[in-house]
Amino acid sequence: MTTRRTFLSQSAAITTAALTVPVLQADESKMSQLPRGKAEHCVFVWLGGGQGHLDTWDPKVKGDPKEKKPGSYYDSIETAISGTRVCEHLPRCATILDRFNILRTVNHDVIDEHAAATNRMHTGRPTSGTEQYPSIGSIVAQQRGTITDGVPAYVLMGYPNVTRGPGFLGPKYGYVHLTDTKSGPPALKRSVGITDERQARRETLLNAVRDDLRSRNGSEGIAAEYDAAIAAAQKLAGPEFMRLFDLNRESADLRHDFGGEFGQRCLLARRLIEGGVRFIEVSHNLNFLNGTGWDVHNEGILNQHKLIAELDQALSALVRDLENKKLLDKTLIVVATEFGRPAQFDGGGGRGHHGRCFSVVLAGGGLKNGITIGETDELGMKIVSRPVSVPDLHATVHCALGINPREEIYSGTRPVPITDEGEPVRELFA
Amino acid sequence: MRSALLVMISLSIFGSRFSLAQPSDSLPYAETILQDQPVAYWRLEDHLFEVHPKSLGHGIIKPGVASRLFDEDNLNDASATSKGFVRADQLGPRPPKFLNFEADNQAAAFESPAVIKIADPGEKSPLDFGLGDSITLEAWVLVKKLGDGQQMYVVGKGRTKNAGVAEDNQNYALRLAGNKGDACVTFLFRSEDNRKGNQNDFHRWTSKAGFDIESGWHHVATSYRFGKPESIRGYIDGQPLEGEWDYGGATTEAPVVDDDEVWIGSASAINAGNSFHGSIDEVAIYRSALPAERIAARWRVLQPKPYVTTIEPPKDGVLVEVLEGIPDKMNWDFIAPEPTDRYVESGFALVEIAHKYSPLGVRADRSNPFVVRVTGDLKLPAGDCRLLTRSRSASRLFVDGRLVVANPFPKFRGDGHEDVWGLDRVPAPGHRALRPGDQDAIATFKSDGGRHRLTWEVFLGGKSMRPELGETLVALAEPDRDTFVVLHPTKPFPLTDDAWMDYDARLRGELATLNQQRRREASREWTAFWNKRHEYASKVAESLRDSNSSHGMTGLQSADDWSFLRRVALDTVGTIPTAEHIKFFFAQPEATRRAAIIDKLLAEPGYADHWVSYWQDVLAENPNILNPTLNNTGPFRWWIHESFLDNKPFDQFATELILMEGSIRYGGPGGFSVASQNDVPMAAKAHIVGQAFLGLEMKCARCHDAPYHDFLQRDLFSLAALLKREPEKVPKTSSLNLDAFAVRGREPLVKVTLKPGESVTPVWPFGELVAAVPDELLSNPKDSRERLAAFITSPTNRRFAQVIVNRIWARLFGKGIVDPVDDWEKVKPSNPELLESLEREFVSHGYDVKQLMRVILNSRAYQAKEVQLLRDSNSGHRVTGPHSRRLTAEQLIDSLFVAADKPFNVEEINIDVDGARRQDVSISLGHARRAWQFTSMSNERDRPSLSLPAAQTIVDLLESFGWRASRPDPITIRSNETTVLQPAMIANGVVAKRVSQLSDDSAFTELALAAQTPEDFIDSVTQRLLTRPATAAEQKIFGDLLRDGFASRIVPGEHPIRRSQPPRQTGVSWSNHLKPEANFRKQQLAEEIAFGDPTTSRLNADWRERAEDMIWSLINSPEFLIVP
Questions:
Q1: Containing H/E element for A4?
Q2: Same domain, yes or no: B137 and B178
C-alpha cells in the first residue's frame, strides 16, 4: 500500500527540487510599498532593567510615592517638539528633541522576568522551543555586513548573553563584546602584560609555524580556511582597527561632554561608526548610580534621576557629535529597554514592571525626526492611540537601515521572515 | 583505596517502630462515630462514588453510610456532586499509626479549587442550625498547602454564591487558617441579620495553636451552641484548644439559616483562595456539642518513637543516615523518622550527600527539607577541647548524647540589598575562611581523653530552598592549641585552604564511585527487565539478513599512528591524547597498539564526558542558573553523564528520557519534562524525541503541516499527547494565521489542518515505522509514555537502531551513511548494507553504544587516512575514511586544559552562592571540570555583580566556536563556520594565555624543568599539543628561540609558589548584588583574571617568556584545531 508518506518519499526528486525555490513567494507589488531608509549604521542603546516611561519620555501628572498617589516621579519640561514634554532630568535632549522620535506605545506581554523580556525586545519574537531567534544586531550584521573590510559588523558594549546573540544564524553573525571601554574587547585587545616586542615575537613564531604547516599540508581544506582566518584576525586586532578604541585620541573637551563610562561608550560608538562598524549595542547598565540600574523597585528609585541625567548627557552629546560630523542622518539611534514601569508605586516607593505601553526613542537615521508617535492614557498605563508592536519597532529599524523586514532568513532549510509580520511606522519615513 | 570505605548498608527493618499495648476499647472508627449519632457522615471512600472518580469533573457521590444516618424522612436520597479535581481513592488514615481505622481506608483528595456539594433537603432540615441549637463539625485532614493568612474550607453550609440565596449566608463552617506554617482551626458563621456590606455580621473563632502543614493526617473539630459564645470549643488531634473570637467578636445572635447547600472543600463559587488543598476524610455533622472525651476518642494514634541510631559506626569512617519526610518548618521539633538511606563516609566534613536513585536508577529528589545524621566514634584529647561546626543551615553536634555546639536556623536573606559577605571569618589566623552563606559556632567540651560517640545532625533545605551543604564540617582544637583540625577517624586534616581543597576533591571522587554503586543497586529490577528485552531484541536481530561484508572498505590507505592516536582520542574521550596515552600507545606492539588504545580510551570516564555535549544539543538540554524563562529545562545533563558512565543500553536511555521521571532540578530525566514559558511543552518534547531517535524533523509541524515534509501538525500533537498522557490541545500560538498571507496577496505554501483549541488524542501516528509493540516490551502497558517509548525503541522499529548507529557513525566520520542524520525523510543511505550490518551489531549486542564504537573504531574505514570533504556526488555505495574536522568548542577547551594539565579553576556556576534564593529561581551547576558543564551566564541584567568573570573567559571561547549557551531547540550539526573571531579569541583571550603561561601547576613547566636539551623540550611540547614530534622546521624555529639561556633557565633555590585554585571568593551573591560594593568587587576580580595564572619563579623570566611564546604559537596554529 502506498501511504501518504511513502508516496512522498518516492517522489523525493520533486520535493528536493522544491527546496531550492523561495518558500513563500512574495508579491512584488506589495513589497515595493515598504519604505526604504538610507541609514548605514545603528547605535542601539539598551537601558537594562526596564526604563520607566513616566519618569522619562512620557511624563504624566506628578505622583507621590509616600501617599501612594500614582503618577510621574518628576516634573516635566517643554521640548523642541511642540506639545511633547519630557522629564525635567532630560534638559539637554529636550532642547534638541527635534532630532528625535519618541515611540510612546511600544508594548508586549512579557513582564515577569527581565531575561524573557530582553529576549522579546532583541529578537522580536516569543521563545518557542523550535528556534533560537537571532538578535536584531545579528540580523543587521547578516543583512548588511560591514562597511569596510577588516572590522566586525556587530559590536556589543555590555555583558554577553543569549538574547543578544546570533541564534540560528551562527557565530559568524555574533558580536565582538567589551564590558569596559578602558580594557577594550577581550577578543581583540592584546592580552594584559604582553609587550609590543613580545607580541611581535609571537606573531613571527606563529607565522613561521603556519608556513611550515602550509608547506606540509597544501592550501586547501579546513586548516587552510582557518589559516586565512588567522590572517584576518591579526589584521582586526592590528593597529588600524584597534586605534578606534583609543579614546585618548579625542579632545578632552569632547570626552568631558560625553560624561562618565556610559558617555565614553557612546563616544566609542561614534568612533566605531567612523571605522565602518554596522551595528553597535551600548548597554547603559551602570547601577552604581542608584543600586538597581533602571530596575527601580523600592529604594532604587531614590537616585533614578542620576541615571536619567547620565543618559541625558551622553545621548545628547552623541546626537550633537554625530550631527557635527554629518553622520546623524546615516546613523539610526535606538534607545530601547525591556519594558516600562507603572504609574503606581510599590511598598518601598519604587515601581514594578509594565509592558502594556512604554517608550522607545529613535534619533537621526534619516527619519522624519521631531514627531512623537502614539498616545497613552492620563497615567501612561494604557494605549490611547497608535500602538507600536515589538515586530513593528523592529520593522521600523530594518526599513530605516534599508533592510526588507519581510525578507526570509534561513534556519537550516526553514525560512523565517526577519520580523514576525512587523509593519514599519510609516509616519517616520519621508 | 579510600573508596573502599564508602560501603552501602542496605536498610533493614528494626523491629516495630510502634509502641505496643493500646487500650482495647478502641472500636472501628465508623462505630465510634455512629455512637455519637451524626446527622450527616461522609466516609469518602472510592466505592461510594457512583461515577468512578477517575473520570472527575462532575462525579456524583452516593451518600453511602451517611444516608442511613440522616433523619429518615427527608435525607435518604441525599446525594452529593463534585466539581473540580476530587478523587476518593487516596490513602486515608490507616493502621499501624491510626489504630481504629480499616487497613484499606480511603480518603478524598482535593486539588484546589474543587468541591463536593450536598443539597439541603429544604426548610428546617437537619442540616439547618438556628439559635439555641448545638453543633459539632469534624473531619480528618491532610494539608498539602496553606498560605499564611489563608482560610480554607473543610465543611460549611451556605456562602456558596449559589443563585437564589443571599450572599454571605454562612450558617456554619469549619475551616483551617494558615499561620506561619501552622494550620489553625476556625469556626465561622454569620448573623441572622446578614446586612449587606457589614463585615461585623461575620463571627469567627480561631484557635491559637495549630498543626504543621504537610505533616500527615490530623483530626479537627469544633462545637458550638448558637447564642452562647462561651460554648465554643475547638480540637486538634483530640485535644481541646485555646482560641478567641478574633473577627466580628463573640455574639449571642442567631446565625443566618436558609436552604443553601453544604459544601466540602470550598466556598464562594469555588474560589481557589478558599479551597482545600490536600485530602479530607470522615466528615461528620452532629446536632449536639460532643463532649471533649468523645472527641478524644477519635484520636487513637500510636505516635512513632523517635528514631535512634543503634547501628555501630565503622571504626575507620562515619555512618551517614538520611531522615526524610520531616515537617517543612525551620526548627528541630519533629519526631525523627526512620532513615530512608544509609551509607558510610570517611569523616565529619560534607560537601555533597550521596544521590538518591529511583528504581529506574535515575536521580530522584529527597524530601525538602531533610536531615542528615552522621555518627562516629572518635578519641578526643583530654582536657578542654574546642569544637567548631560549620554548616549552611542548622546543625547540632552531640557528644555522648549531650548537645555541645549548634548552628541555628538561618534567617532568609533579602533580594539584592543585603551586605556583601565578609571574607575574614576564621577561628584563628591561617585557617580557611567561612564561605558566603555558611555559619559557624564554637563550644568547649571537656574530654577525659577517651573515645566518644559523636552524633551530628545537619538540616538541609526547607521552604523550597536548595538542599545545599556549603562547607559543612566539625573541627577540633586540642586543649591550649589554636589550630583546628577537621574530625576524621583516619585522616584528620588542618582546616586550611590547601587541605580542604584536597579533601573536597577526594570526597567528590569517592562519592562518584559510591553513586555509581547506588545506581546499580537501585535499578536491579529495571536492569533485569532490560536484559529480557535484549534477549528478545537479539532474536529480532537474528532475523535480519546478514550482510557482513567488507562494505567497500578495501583499498583504503591507513592513517599513520600519530594521526590515528589523535583522532581516536578526540573521538572517544573528547580531548587530544595525554602524555600517558602516547606513552601507552607506543609501548604496545605495533600490530595491536590500535586495538589496545581503543579499549583503554573507551574505558576512561572521558568517554561519558564526550557524549554529554552531543546529547545536550540533540535533546535541547537547556538549564538556566537564574529565573528560567527561556524555554528552559532542568539540568538533565547529569543523567546523560551517568548514563554514558554506566554504558547504559541506548534503548533504555531513550526510554528513560521519554518517561521523564526523577529529579527535575538536580539532574534526573525529570528535567526533560520542563519547558519554561512554553505553552505546549510536550509538543516541544515530541519534536525533540522524534528528531533525536527517529530522524523525523517535525519543527515546522509545531504550527502547521510541514511544507516539505510529509508531517501533519496532527502527527506531532499525537506524540505530544502520548507524552502528556492525555489529549493535547493546540494553542493559538501554535498556529498560523493564513489570512495574513491572503491580505498581502501571497499564496501560502503551508497548510493548517488543525484548528487552535482542537484536542488531539494520544495515538502512535507512524504506523509505517512500526505498527504494534509486543507486550513483553512493556512493564506498564497502561502508561502512554511507556507505550510511546516502546514504539520508538522496539527492535521491530528498525528506524530507531538505524538512526542511532548512523548518529554514531557520523560523529566518528564527519558524515553519516544517511545524511543529514536528523532528517531521514528524503534521503537514502549511501551504503544500505553497511547500515544494516551496524544495526544488527547494535541490536544483537543489546544497544551497546560502546561495543558498536569499538567495532567501528577498529575498522579499516575509521583508521584510514583522512579524506577531505567530498566534492564529488554520492556515487554508489561507498565508504570513505573520516572527514577531517575542526575541533568542537568543547574539544578545544578540554584539549587546551588537558595539554597544560591544568584545571579550569573557574567560579562555581551559580550566582546564588549563599543559597538565599528558592530552588525554582536559582540553581547551581557546580564546579566545571569539563566544557559541557558550562551554561549561559544569564547576565541579561547587565550587572557586573552578577557576572562570573573567570567562567566568562571560557564561555566566550566556547561560543565563538559554535557552542550554544542556550539550547531552546534540538540540533545535531552546529554551525562550523570559520570566523575571524575564533583565532582572535584564542590569540588574545585569557584561556590560551593561561594554558601557555608557565605557572607552577602547568605540565609545560615540568617539561621545561626536566628537559635535557632545547630539542628535547621542543619535541615534548609539540607532542603534547599536536600529537607528533616536532618537524625539522619547527626544531629550527624554536631552537633559535630557546637555545639562548637554556642552560641557565632554572633559578636555583626557588619552590612552587602557590597551588592552583579557583578565583578567590568575592563574597558577592544574588542577595547582595545591588550593593555598589558587589559591583566593585566583581570588576576587581575581572581585572585580576585578565592577568592569567601566576607564573613560576623556578624559571628565568626571559627564557620562560620565550618558551611561553612557543607554546602560544602552537596553540594558535591551525593544526591544533584539526581532528586529523
A1: helix A4-10
A2: yes
Collect all residues with Cβ–Cβ distance below 8 Å to B861 and sequence separation of at least 6: B551, B553, B556, B813, B879, B880, B881
A180 Cα to chain B: minimum distance (Å):
9
- Alpha carbons within 13 angstroms on the beta-carbon side of residue B862 total 25
**Interface contact A127-B1041, CB threshold 8 A:** no
Domain identity same for A288 and A205: no
Residue span of the structural domain in which A228 resides: 190-236
A155 and A229 housed in the same domain:
no
Output the CA torsion sign for B521, B524, B530, B532.
positive
Written as nine digits, the cell of B617 is: 544539543
Q: Are residues B1039 and B1001 in the same domain?
A: yes
Does the beta-carbon distance from A285 to B969 stay under 8 Å?
Answer: no
**Closest CB to B943 among A30, A233, A285:** A285
d(CA A403, CA A360): 20
CATH code, domain carrying B26? 2.60.120.200
Q: Which CATH number characterizes residue A98's domain? A: 3.40.720.10
Report the number of distinct structural domains present in chain A. Answer: 2
Residue in B629, B885, B959 closest to A171 by CB: B959
Q: How large is the ipTM?
A: 0.89
- Check whether residue A144 and residue A195 sit in a common domain: no
Contacts of B979 in chain A (CB under 8 A): 171-172, 174, 229
Q: According to the model, what pLDDT value does residue B745 have?
A: 59
**Domain shared by B456 and B535, yes or no:** no
In a domain, A394, yes or no: yes
* A19: closest CA of chain B, how far (Å): 7
pLDDT value of residue B327: 87
> Are B872 and B906 members of one domain?
no
CB contact under 8 A, B959 and A165: yes
Q: To the nearest 10°, the Cα dihedral for B605, B610, B615, B618?
A: 180
Answer for the pair B201, B166: CB distance below 8 angstroms, yes or no: no
Q: Sign of dihedral through CA atoms A16, A20, A23, A25? A: negative
**Nearest residue on chain B to A10, alpha-carbon basis:** B826
Domain containing B950 equals 889-1123
Q: Which residue has the cell 496532527?
A: B714
3-state helix/strand/coil string of A259-299: CCHHHHHHHHHHHHHHHCCCEEEEECCCCCCCCCCCCCCHH
Q: Are residues B323 and B378 in the same domain?
A: yes
What is the pLDDT at residue A4? 44
Structural domain includes residue A336: yes
From the list A127, A161, A205, the residue facing B1110 with the nearest CB is A205
**Cβ–Cβ gap B937/A46 under 8 Å:** no
pLDDT in tens, B834-872: 899 999 999 999 999 999 999 999 988 899 887 644 433
For the domain that residue B452 is a member of, what is the CATH number?
Answer: 2.60.120
**B1121 close to B887: Cβ distance less than 8 angstroms:** yes
Subunit contact A174:B981, Cβ cutoff 8 A: yes
Number of A to B CB contacts under 8 A, please give it: 307
Residue B509 forms part of a structural domain: no
pLDDT at B637 over 90: yes
